[in-house]
Amino acid sequence: MTSAATPELAERYNLSAGSTYSSSNATTENLRYTLDENGNIDMLGIGRIQIGGLTRSEAAEKIQSVFRQGILNDAVVTVAAYNQFITVLGDVAHPGRIGISRDAITIIEAIGLAGDLNITGRRDQIKVIRQEGDQSKTYFVDLRSKDIFNSPVYYLQQNDIVYVEPNKVKMGQSTNNDNSVRTISTWLSVSSLLLSIAILIFN
User: Fold this and answer.
1) Domain map of the chain by residue range?
2) CATH number of 2-77
3) What is the pLDDT of residues 161-178, one digit of tens each?
Protein backbone atom coordinates (compact mmCIF):
# COMPACT_ATOMS: atom_id res chain seq x y z
CA MET A 1 0.00 0.00 0.00
CA THR A 2 1.24 3.49 -0.89
CA SER A 3 0.29 6.67 0.93
CA ALA A 4 1.42 10.29 0.72
CA ALA A 5 0.50 13.80 1.74
CA THR A 6 -1.23 14.10 -1.65
CA PRO A 7 -3.71 11.16 -1.63
CA GLU A 8 -4.76 11.74 -5.25
CA LEU A 9 -1.24 10.92 -6.44
CA ALA A 10 -0.90 7.86 -4.23
CA GLU A 11 -4.28 6.39 -5.20
CA ARG A 12 -3.22 5.29 -8.68
CA TYR A 13 -0.59 2.98 -7.21
CA ASN A 14 -3.18 1.30 -4.98
CA LEU A 15 -5.80 0.64 -7.65
CA SER A 16 -6.70 -2.97 -8.33
CA ALA A 17 -8.03 -4.26 -11.63
CA GLY A 18 -11.66 -3.90 -10.54
CA SER A 19 -11.35 -0.51 -8.87
CA THR A 20 -12.37 2.89 -10.19
CA TYR A 21 -10.55 6.17 -9.73
CA SER A 22 -11.57 9.79 -9.63
CA SER A 23 -9.61 12.73 -8.36
CA SER A 24 -12.36 13.87 -6.03
CA ASN A 25 -13.62 10.61 -4.50
CA ALA A 26 -11.59 7.48 -5.19
CA THR A 27 -12.81 3.98 -4.38
CA THR A 28 -9.74 1.77 -4.12
CA GLU A 29 -8.39 -1.54 -2.95
CA ASN A 30 -4.76 -2.36 -2.31
CA LEU A 31 -3.08 -3.68 -5.42
CA ARG A 32 -1.43 -7.08 -5.01
CA TYR A 33 1.73 -7.74 -6.96
CA THR A 34 3.12 -11.20 -7.61
CA LEU A 35 6.84 -11.92 -7.64
CA ASP A 36 7.97 -13.44 -10.91
CA GLU A 37 10.52 -16.26 -11.11
CA ASN A 38 13.35 -13.71 -11.01
CA GLY A 39 12.08 -11.98 -7.87
CA ASN A 40 10.69 -8.91 -9.67
CA ILE A 41 7.39 -7.09 -9.36
CA ASP A 42 6.00 -4.97 -12.18
CA MET A 43 4.52 -1.84 -10.61
CA LEU A 44 1.97 0.33 -12.32
CA GLY A 45 3.60 3.36 -13.91
CA ILE A 46 7.06 2.45 -12.59
CA GLY A 47 8.14 -0.84 -14.10
CA ARG A 48 10.06 -3.76 -12.67
CA ILE A 49 11.57 -3.63 -9.20
CA GLN A 50 13.78 -6.42 -7.85
CA ILE A 51 12.71 -7.38 -4.32
CA GLY A 52 13.25 -11.15 -4.29
CA GLY A 53 15.09 -12.32 -1.17
CA LEU A 54 14.31 -9.14 0.79
CA THR A 55 12.31 -8.93 3.99
CA ARG A 56 9.07 -7.00 3.86
CA SER A 57 10.64 -3.96 5.53
CA GLU A 58 13.60 -4.05 3.12
CA ALA A 59 11.24 -4.39 0.15
CA ALA A 60 9.16 -1.45 1.41
CA GLU A 61 12.27 0.72 1.75
CA LYS A 62 13.43 -0.16 -1.76
CA ILE A 63 10.05 0.56 -3.36
CA GLN A 64 9.76 3.75 -1.32
CA SER A 65 13.16 4.93 -2.55
CA VAL A 66 12.03 4.39 -6.16
CA PHE A 67 8.89 6.45 -5.55
CA ARG A 68 10.92 9.26 -4.02
CA GLN A 69 13.05 9.65 -7.14
CA GLY A 70 10.74 12.31 -8.52
CA ILE A 71 7.54 10.23 -8.62
CA LEU A 72 6.07 10.69 -5.16
CA ASN A 73 8.56 12.43 -2.91
CA ASP A 74 6.73 11.86 0.37
CA ALA A 75 5.59 8.30 -0.37
CA VAL A 76 5.18 5.82 2.47
CA VAL A 77 5.07 2.19 1.34
CA THR A 78 3.74 -0.78 3.29
CA VAL A 79 4.41 -4.33 2.07
CA ALA A 80 2.21 -7.22 3.18
CA ALA A 81 2.54 -10.89 2.26
CA TYR A 82 -0.38 -12.84 0.80
CA ASN A 83 -0.91 -16.53 0.02
CA GLN A 84 2.18 -17.77 1.87
CA PHE A 85 1.89 -21.15 3.52
CA ILE A 86 3.82 -23.98 5.06
CA THR A 87 2.46 -27.47 5.69
CA VAL A 88 2.88 -29.54 8.86
CA LEU A 89 1.98 -33.23 8.55
CA GLY A 90 2.42 -36.46 10.46
CA ASP A 91 2.18 -37.12 14.18
CA VAL A 92 0.99 -33.69 15.36
CA ALA A 93 -2.27 -32.61 16.97
CA HIS A 94 -3.57 -30.55 14.04
CA PRO A 95 -1.85 -31.43 10.75
CA GLY A 96 -2.50 -29.17 7.79
CA ARG A 97 -1.53 -25.97 6.02
CA ILE A 98 -0.50 -22.92 8.05
CA GLY A 99 -0.56 -19.35 6.77
CA ILE A 100 2.56 -17.21 7.22
CA SER A 101 1.82 -13.60 8.10
CA ARG A 102 5.33 -12.40 8.88
CA ASP A 103 8.82 -12.57 7.41
CA ALA A 104 10.17 -15.48 9.44
CA ILE A 105 8.72 -18.47 11.25
CA THR A 106 10.80 -21.14 12.95
CA ILE A 107 10.21 -24.87 12.79
CA ILE A 108 9.45 -24.81 16.52
CA GLU A 109 6.79 -22.14 16.04
CA ALA A 110 5.28 -24.04 13.11
CA ILE A 111 4.97 -27.23 15.16
CA GLY A 112 3.43 -25.18 17.97
CA LEU A 113 0.84 -23.76 15.55
CA ALA A 114 0.03 -27.34 14.54
CA GLY A 115 -0.82 -28.13 18.16
CA ASP A 116 2.59 -29.62 19.08
CA LEU A 117 3.79 -33.17 18.55
CA ASN A 118 1.66 -36.01 19.83
CA ILE A 119 3.26 -38.05 22.59
CA THR A 120 4.14 -40.68 19.98
CA GLY A 121 5.81 -38.21 17.61
CA ARG A 122 9.57 -38.50 17.09
CA ARG A 123 11.43 -35.41 18.25
CA ASP A 124 14.79 -36.62 17.01
CA GLN A 125 13.99 -36.82 13.30
CA ILE A 126 11.71 -34.07 12.03
CA LYS A 127 11.71 -34.06 8.25
CA VAL A 128 11.59 -30.81 6.27
CA ILE A 129 11.05 -30.95 2.51
CA ARG A 130 12.03 -27.80 0.65
CA GLN A 131 11.88 -26.91 -3.03
CA GLU A 132 15.19 -25.39 -4.12
CA GLY A 133 15.12 -24.39 -7.76
CA ASP A 134 13.88 -27.38 -9.72
CA GLN A 135 14.91 -29.87 -7.03
CA SER A 136 13.23 -31.05 -3.84
CA LYS A 137 15.63 -31.40 -0.89
CA THR A 138 14.99 -33.19 2.39
CA TYR A 139 16.49 -32.08 5.71
CA PHE A 140 16.30 -33.73 9.13
CA VAL A 141 16.11 -31.83 12.41
CA ASP A 142 16.52 -33.04 16.00
CA LEU A 143 14.41 -30.84 18.28
CA ARG A 144 16.42 -32.02 21.29
CA SER A 145 19.74 -30.80 19.91
CA LYS A 146 21.17 -27.30 20.28
CA ASP A 147 22.40 -27.66 16.69
CA ILE A 148 18.83 -27.02 15.57
CA PHE A 149 19.54 -23.27 15.68
CA ASN A 150 22.23 -23.73 13.01
CA SER A 151 20.04 -25.80 10.71
CA PRO A 152 19.28 -24.29 7.28
CA VAL A 153 15.62 -25.13 7.91
CA TYR A 154 15.35 -23.67 11.42
CA TYR A 155 13.69 -20.71 9.72
CA LEU A 156 11.07 -22.08 7.38
CA GLN A 157 10.32 -20.76 3.92
CA GLN A 158 7.14 -20.54 1.91
CA ASN A 159 5.85 -23.96 0.77
CA ASP A 160 8.13 -25.92 3.12
CA ILE A 161 6.65 -29.24 4.27
CA VAL A 162 7.34 -30.39 7.83
CA TYR A 163 6.71 -34.07 8.55
CA VAL A 164 6.76 -35.60 12.04
CA GLU A 165 7.36 -39.35 12.03
CA PRO A 166 5.59 -41.56 14.60
CA ASN A 167 7.77 -43.59 16.94
CA LYS A 168 8.21 -47.36 16.65
CA VAL A 169 5.49 -48.10 19.22
CA LYS A 170 2.84 -46.26 17.22
CA MET A 171 4.08 -47.71 13.94
CA GLY A 172 3.90 -51.18 15.51
CA GLN A 173 0.36 -50.55 16.70
CA SER A 174 -0.62 -49.41 13.23
CA THR A 175 0.89 -52.56 11.71
CA ASN A 176 -0.88 -54.79 14.26
CA ASN A 177 -4.20 -53.09 13.58
CA ASP A 178 -3.74 -53.57 9.84
CA ASN A 179 -2.90 -57.24 10.37
CA SER A 180 -5.96 -57.69 12.60
CA VAL A 181 -8.22 -56.18 9.96
CA ARG A 182 -6.70 -58.41 7.29
CA THR A 183 -7.11 -61.49 9.52
CA ILE A 184 -10.78 -60.76 10.22
CA SER A 185 -11.39 -60.08 6.54
CA THR A 186 -9.70 -63.36 5.59
CA TRP A 187 -11.77 -65.40 8.07
CA LEU A 188 -14.97 -63.76 6.88
CA SER A 189 -14.09 -64.61 3.28
CA VAL A 190 -13.28 -68.24 4.18
CA SER A 191 -16.49 -68.59 6.23
CA SER A 192 -18.55 -67.17 3.38
CA LEU A 193 -16.93 -69.59 0.93
CA LEU A 194 -17.57 -72.62 3.19
CA LEU A 195 -21.18 -71.56 3.68
CA SER A 196 -21.67 -71.28 -0.07
CA ILE A 197 -20.17 -74.76 -0.62
CA ALA A 198 -22.39 -76.26 2.11
CA ILE A 199 -25.52 -74.77 0.54
CA LEU A 200 -24.57 -76.23 -2.85
CA ILE A 201 -23.89 -79.70 -1.38
CA PHE A 202 -27.05 -80.01 0.69
CA ASN A 203 -29.27 -78.60 -2.02
Assistant:
1) 2-77, 85-168
2) 3.30.1950
3) 999 999 877 556 655 555
- Residues 59-95 pLDDT 10s: 888 888 887 786 677 777 777 777 788 999 999 999 9
For 9, the enclosing helix (H) or strand (E) is: helix 7-11
**85-168 belongs to CATH 3.20.20.140:** no
Return the pLDDT at 187: 62
Tally of CB atoms within 10 A around 56: 14
> From residue 137, how far is each of 134, 144, 148 by CA, in Å?
10, 22, 17
Of 16, 78, 65, which is closest to residue 44 (Cα–Cα)? 16
Phi, psi values for residue 187, rounded to 5°: -65, -40
Angstrom distance (rounded) from CA 147 to CA 180: 42
The pLDDT of residue 128 is: 96
pTM score, whole prediction: 0.58
- Closest of 140, 117, 120, 142 to residue 128, by C-alpha: 140
Spell out the long-range contacts of 107-116 with Cβ–Cβ below 8 A and sequence spacing 24 or more.
Answer: 107/141, 107/148, 107/151, 107/153, 107/154, 107/155, 107/156, 107/162, 108/143, 108/148, 110/86, 110/156, 110/162, 111/143, 111/162, 111/164, 113/88, 114/88, 114/162, 116/92
How many angstroms separate the CA atoms of 198 and 175, rounded? 35
